[in-house]
Automatic annotation (TrEMBL):
It comes from Roseococcus pinisoli. It comes from the Bacteria. This is Glycosyltransferase family 9 protein. The keyword Iron does not apply. The lineage of its organism: Bacteria, Pseudomonadati, Pseudomonadota, Alphaproteobacteria, Acetobacterales. Keywords: Glycosyltransferase, Transferase. Gene3D superfamilies: Glycogen Phosphorylase B. The keyword Transferase applies.
Protein backbone atom coordinates (compact mmCIF):
# COMPACT_ATOMS: atom_id res chain seq x y z
CA UNK A 1 0.00 0.00 0.00
CA UNK A 2 1.31 3.44 -0.94
CA UNK A 3 0.31 6.41 1.19
CA UNK A 4 0.97 10.09 0.56
CA UNK A 5 0.77 12.01 3.84
CA UNK A 6 0.79 15.81 3.53
CA UNK A 7 1.36 17.50 6.86
CA UNK A 8 2.51 20.75 8.42
CA UNK A 9 5.47 22.99 7.72
CA UNK A 10 5.83 23.54 11.51
CA UNK A 11 7.29 21.10 14.00
CA UNK A 12 4.46 21.24 16.56
CA UNK A 13 1.67 20.49 14.10
CA UNK A 14 3.82 17.85 12.42
CA UNK A 15 4.31 16.08 15.77
CA UNK A 16 0.56 16.18 16.43
CA UNK A 17 -0.01 14.46 13.07
CA UNK A 18 2.24 11.51 13.98
CA UNK A 19 -0.59 9.85 15.93
CA UNK A 20 -2.73 9.53 12.81
CA UNK A 21 0.27 8.36 10.80
CA UNK A 22 1.09 5.73 13.43
CA UNK A 23 -2.56 4.61 13.29
CA UNK A 24 -2.28 4.14 9.52
CA UNK A 25 0.95 2.14 9.84
CA UNK A 26 -0.69 -0.18 12.35
CA UNK A 27 -3.81 -0.55 10.24
CA UNK A 28 -1.80 -1.27 7.07
CA UNK A 29 1.31 -3.32 7.92
CA UNK A 30 3.96 -3.01 5.26
CA UNK A 31 2.61 0.28 3.89
CA UNK A 32 5.11 2.56 2.18
CA UNK A 33 4.66 6.19 3.12
CA UNK A 34 5.74 9.39 1.42
CA UNK A 35 5.59 12.39 3.75
CA UNK A 36 5.36 15.97 2.49
CA UNK A 37 6.22 18.50 5.21
CA UNK A 38 8.21 21.63 5.91
CA UNK A 39 12.02 21.54 5.98
CA UNK A 40 12.17 22.20 9.73
CA UNK A 41 9.80 19.29 10.42
CA UNK A 42 11.63 16.64 8.38
CA UNK A 43 13.35 15.19 11.44
CA UNK A 44 9.99 14.33 12.99
CA UNK A 45 9.62 11.59 10.34
CA UNK A 46 13.14 10.44 9.42
CA UNK A 47 13.05 7.43 11.79
CA UNK A 48 9.47 6.47 11.00
CA UNK A 49 8.90 2.81 10.04
CA UNK A 50 7.64 2.35 6.51
CA UNK A 51 9.08 5.65 5.32
CA UNK A 52 9.75 5.63 1.59
CA UNK A 53 10.45 9.30 1.00
CA UNK A 54 10.25 12.75 2.57
CA UNK A 55 9.40 15.63 0.25
CA UNK A 56 10.27 18.97 1.86
CA UNK A 57 7.82 21.73 1.01
CA UNK A 58 9.04 25.32 0.87
CA UNK A 59 6.30 27.94 0.80
CA UNK A 60 6.33 30.10 -2.32
CA UNK A 61 4.35 33.17 -3.41
CA UNK A 62 0.93 32.54 -4.98
CA UNK A 63 0.95 29.02 -3.48
CA UNK A 64 3.33 27.78 -6.15
CA UNK A 65 4.72 25.26 -3.64
CA UNK A 66 1.61 23.15 -4.30
CA UNK A 67 2.50 23.01 -7.98
CA UNK A 68 6.03 21.93 -7.03
CA UNK A 69 4.63 19.15 -4.87
CA UNK A 70 2.12 18.06 -7.50
CA UNK A 71 4.90 17.62 -10.05
CA UNK A 72 6.71 15.27 -7.66
CA UNK A 73 3.74 13.04 -6.83
CA UNK A 74 1.30 13.28 -9.75
CA UNK A 75 2.75 10.52 -11.90
CA UNK A 76 2.25 7.77 -9.37
CA UNK A 77 -0.79 5.81 -8.31
CA UNK A 78 -1.59 6.08 -4.62
CA UNK A 79 -3.79 3.93 -2.43
CA UNK A 80 -4.43 6.75 0.05
CA UNK A 81 -3.71 10.48 0.03
CA UNK A 82 -4.08 12.27 3.36
CA UNK A 83 -3.91 16.06 3.14
CA UNK A 84 -3.80 17.81 6.50
CA UNK A 85 -3.18 21.18 4.86
CA UNK A 86 -6.67 21.43 3.39
CA UNK A 87 -5.38 22.09 -0.11
CA UNK A 88 -6.82 20.96 -3.44
CA UNK A 89 -3.91 18.67 -4.29
CA UNK A 90 -5.58 15.47 -3.08
CA UNK A 91 -8.31 15.97 -5.70
CA UNK A 92 -5.73 16.29 -8.47
CA UNK A 93 -4.02 12.96 -7.86
CA UNK A 94 -4.85 9.40 -8.88
CA UNK A 95 -5.71 7.61 -5.65
CA UNK A 96 -8.10 4.93 -4.44
CA UNK A 97 -8.99 7.01 -1.39
CA UNK A 98 -8.42 10.54 -0.22
CA UNK A 99 -8.87 12.32 3.12
CA UNK A 100 -8.65 16.09 3.40
CA UNK A 101 -8.69 17.99 6.68
CA UNK A 102 -11.04 20.94 6.70
CA UNK A 103 -9.16 24.24 6.99
CA UNK A 104 -9.86 27.23 9.20
CA UNK A 105 -10.03 27.75 12.94
CA UNK A 106 -12.65 25.87 14.94
CA UNK A 107 -13.33 24.66 18.44
CA UNK A 108 -11.50 21.66 19.86
CA UNK A 109 -7.96 20.38 20.02
CA UNK A 110 -5.86 20.23 16.87
CA UNK A 111 -5.35 16.50 17.49
CA UNK A 112 -9.09 15.93 17.06
CA UNK A 113 -9.16 18.02 13.90
CA UNK A 114 -6.40 15.83 12.45
CA UNK A 115 -8.11 12.57 13.42
CA UNK A 116 -11.42 13.77 11.97
CA UNK A 117 -9.85 13.77 8.51
CA UNK A 118 -10.07 9.95 8.59
CA UNK A 119 -12.89 9.64 11.11
CA UNK A 120 -10.62 8.06 13.72
CA UNK A 121 -12.03 8.13 17.26
CA UNK A 122 -10.67 8.65 19.82
CA UNK A 123 -7.81 10.63 18.26
CA UNK A 124 -4.55 8.65 18.51
CA UNK A 125 -1.81 10.21 20.61
CA UNK A 126 1.35 11.51 18.92
CA UNK A 127 4.45 9.33 18.88
CA UNK A 128 8.17 10.09 18.74
CA UNK A 129 10.42 8.03 16.48
CA UNK A 130 14.15 7.60 17.17
CA UNK A 131 16.66 4.78 16.82
CA UNK A 132 19.47 3.16 18.80
CA UNK A 133 22.08 5.64 17.54
CA UNK A 134 19.92 8.53 18.74
CA UNK A 135 19.52 6.84 22.12
CA UNK A 136 23.28 6.35 22.39
CA UNK A 137 23.89 10.02 21.61
CA UNK A 138 21.32 11.07 24.21
CA UNK A 139 22.82 8.76 26.84
CA UNK A 140 26.25 10.24 26.17
CA UNK A 141 24.98 13.78 26.70
CA UNK A 142 22.56 13.01 29.54
CA UNK A 143 24.01 10.09 31.49
CA UNK A 144 22.30 8.77 34.59
CA UNK A 145 19.54 10.95 35.99
CA UNK A 146 17.09 12.14 36.99
CA UNK A 147 17.04 15.02 34.52
CA UNK A 148 14.98 18.20 34.53
CA UNK A 149 14.84 19.43 30.93
CA UNK A 150 13.79 23.01 30.28
CA UNK A 151 12.61 24.54 27.01
CA UNK A 152 12.86 28.32 27.53
CA UNK A 153 12.60 29.28 23.84
CA UNK A 154 9.72 29.68 21.41
CA UNK A 155 9.05 31.05 17.94
CA UNK A 156 7.18 34.10 19.30
CA UNK A 157 8.41 36.28 22.14
CA UNK A 158 4.90 36.82 23.53
CA UNK A 159 4.55 33.13 24.40
CA UNK A 160 7.95 32.95 26.08
CA UNK A 161 7.93 32.73 29.88
CA UNK A 162 10.41 35.18 31.52
CA UNK A 163 13.89 33.69 31.80
CA UNK A 164 14.28 34.52 35.49
CA UNK A 165 11.22 32.41 36.26
CA UNK A 166 12.72 29.38 34.53
CA UNK A 167 15.77 29.83 36.73
CA UNK A 168 13.72 30.13 39.92
CA UNK A 169 11.64 27.15 38.84
CA UNK A 170 14.73 25.01 38.30
CA UNK A 171 16.02 25.85 41.77
CA UNK A 172 12.72 24.99 43.41
CA UNK A 173 12.05 21.80 41.50
CA UNK A 174 15.51 20.37 42.18
CA UNK A 175 15.75 21.47 45.84
CA UNK A 176 15.97 18.76 48.50
CA UNK A 177 12.28 19.24 49.30
CA UNK A 178 11.21 19.74 45.66
CA UNK A 179 9.33 17.27 43.46
CA UNK A 180 12.54 16.33 41.56
CA UNK A 181 15.23 16.59 44.25
CA UNK A 182 18.85 16.94 43.12
CA UNK A 183 17.95 16.39 39.49
CA UNK A 184 20.48 17.53 36.94
CA UNK A 185 19.37 20.21 34.48
CA UNK A 186 19.51 20.37 30.69
CA UNK A 187 18.43 23.24 28.43
CA UNK A 188 16.92 22.50 25.02
CA UNK A 189 16.33 24.81 22.09
CA UNK A 190 16.34 24.76 18.33
CA UNK A 191 19.06 25.81 15.90
CA UNK A 192 19.82 29.40 14.98
CA UNK A 193 20.88 32.63 16.65
CA UNK A 194 17.37 33.58 17.77
CA UNK A 195 17.06 30.37 19.80
CA UNK A 196 20.55 30.87 21.23
CA UNK A 197 19.74 34.42 22.33
CA UNK A 198 16.43 33.33 23.82
CA UNK A 199 18.11 30.65 25.94
CA UNK A 200 21.19 32.68 26.88
CA UNK A 201 19.85 34.21 30.11
CA UNK A 202 18.77 30.84 31.47
CA UNK A 203 22.04 29.19 30.50
CA UNK A 204 24.07 32.00 32.10
CA UNK A 205 22.10 31.75 35.33
CA UNK A 206 22.41 27.94 35.47
CA UNK A 207 26.09 27.35 34.67
CA UNK A 208 25.89 23.70 35.67
CA UNK A 209 23.16 22.94 33.15
CA UNK A 210 23.90 20.90 30.04
CA UNK A 211 23.58 23.13 26.98
CA UNK A 212 21.72 21.28 24.21
CA UNK A 213 20.49 24.38 22.35
CA UNK A 214 20.84 23.78 18.63
CA UNK A 215 23.13 20.77 19.13
CA UNK A 216 20.77 17.93 18.27
CA UNK A 217 18.78 16.62 15.34
CA UNK A 218 15.06 16.15 15.98
CA UNK A 219 15.38 12.36 16.47
CA UNK A 220 18.20 13.03 18.97
CA UNK A 221 15.98 15.61 20.68
CA UNK A 222 13.28 12.97 21.06
CA UNK A 223 15.78 10.48 22.48
CA UNK A 224 17.11 13.09 24.92
CA UNK A 225 13.61 14.03 26.03
CA UNK A 226 12.78 10.37 26.60
CA UNK A 227 15.45 10.44 29.35
CA UNK A 228 13.81 13.35 31.20
CA UNK A 229 12.27 12.97 34.62
CA UNK A 230 10.32 16.14 33.78
CA UNK A 231 10.15 18.54 30.86
CA UNK A 232 8.92 22.12 31.31
CA UNK A 233 8.75 24.49 28.37
CA UNK A 234 6.89 27.11 26.42
CA UNK A 235 4.25 26.26 23.83
CA UNK A 236 6.55 24.94 21.08
CA UNK A 237 7.47 21.97 18.96
CA UNK A 238 9.82 20.76 21.69
CA UNK A 239 6.89 20.63 24.10
CA UNK A 240 4.94 18.42 21.70
CA UNK A 241 7.92 16.11 21.16
CA UNK A 242 8.36 15.76 24.93
CA UNK A 243 4.71 14.83 25.41
CA UNK A 244 4.91 12.35 22.53
CA UNK A 245 7.80 10.48 24.20
CA UNK A 246 5.55 9.86 27.22
CA UNK A 247 7.70 11.64 29.81
CA UNK A 248 6.05 14.00 32.34
CA UNK A 249 5.55 17.24 30.40
CA UNK A 250 4.33 20.68 31.41
CA UNK A 251 3.52 23.14 28.62
CA UNK A 252 3.34 26.81 29.62
CA UNK A 253 0.57 28.89 28.02
CA UNK A 254 -0.48 32.52 28.02
CA UNK A 255 -1.55 34.19 24.74
CA UNK A 256 -1.96 30.92 22.81
CA UNK A 257 -4.89 28.48 23.20
CA UNK A 258 -4.06 25.41 25.28
CA UNK A 259 -7.51 24.10 24.36
CA UNK A 260 -6.24 23.79 20.79
CA UNK A 261 -2.50 23.22 21.20
CA UNK A 262 -1.94 21.85 24.70
CA UNK A 263 0.55 18.97 25.00
CA UNK A 264 -0.92 15.50 24.48
CA UNK A 265 0.59 12.43 26.10
CA UNK A 266 0.08 9.94 28.91
CA UNK A 267 1.60 12.38 31.43
CA UNK A 268 1.21 15.81 29.87
CA UNK A 269 -0.53 18.94 31.15
CA UNK A 270 -0.86 22.60 30.21
CA UNK A 271 -0.28 25.28 32.85
CA UNK A 272 -2.15 28.49 32.04
CA UNK A 273 -1.37 32.06 32.98
CA UNK A 274 -3.81 33.62 35.44
CA UNK A 275 -6.39 35.33 33.23
CA UNK A 276 -8.63 34.78 30.21
CA UNK A 277 -7.34 31.78 28.21
CA UNK A 278 -5.39 32.49 25.03
CA UNK A 279 -5.13 36.23 25.70
CA UNK A 280 -3.20 36.55 28.97
CA UNK A 281 0.49 37.61 28.96
CA UNK A 282 3.05 35.04 30.05
CA UNK A 283 4.19 37.18 32.98
CA UNK A 284 0.82 36.36 34.59
CA UNK A 285 2.00 32.76 34.98
CA UNK A 286 3.58 32.35 38.41
CA UNK A 287 6.38 30.03 39.45
CA UNK A 288 4.12 28.78 42.24
CA UNK A 289 1.56 27.58 39.68
CA UNK A 290 4.17 25.64 37.73
CA UNK A 291 5.70 24.10 40.86
CA UNK A 292 2.23 23.03 42.01
CA UNK A 293 1.51 21.45 38.61
CA UNK A 294 4.88 19.66 38.61
CA UNK A 295 4.33 18.34 42.12
CA UNK A 296 0.92 16.97 41.10
CA UNK A 297 2.23 15.49 37.85
CA UNK A 298 5.15 13.73 39.56
CA UNK A 299 3.18 12.43 42.53
CA UNK A 300 3.27 8.62 42.80
CA UNK A 301 0.23 6.94 41.29
CA UNK A 302 -1.53 4.64 43.74
CA UNK A 303 -2.63 1.18 42.69
CA UNK A 304 -6.43 0.66 42.60
CA UNK A 305 -7.80 0.32 46.10
CA UNK A 306 -4.51 1.39 47.71
CA UNK A 307 -4.31 4.69 49.60
CA UNK A 308 -1.54 7.05 48.60
Amino acid sequence: MRILFITSTRIGDAVLSTGLLDHLLRAHPGAQVTVACGHVAEGVFTRMPGLERIIPVTKRPWSLHWLDLWRKVAFRRWDLVVDLRGSAIAWLLWTRRRAVMRGGRRAGHRLQHIADALGVKPPPHPVAWFDAADEARAAELLPGGPWLVLGPTSNWHLKTWPADRFVTLADRLTAADGPLPQARIAILGGPGEQERRSAASVLNALPGAVDLVGRLSLPEVAAALARAGLYVGNDSGLMHIAAATGVPTLGLFGPTPASEYGPVGPRAEAVLADGPPATTPMDRLSVDSVVEAATHLLAPVSAPGVAA
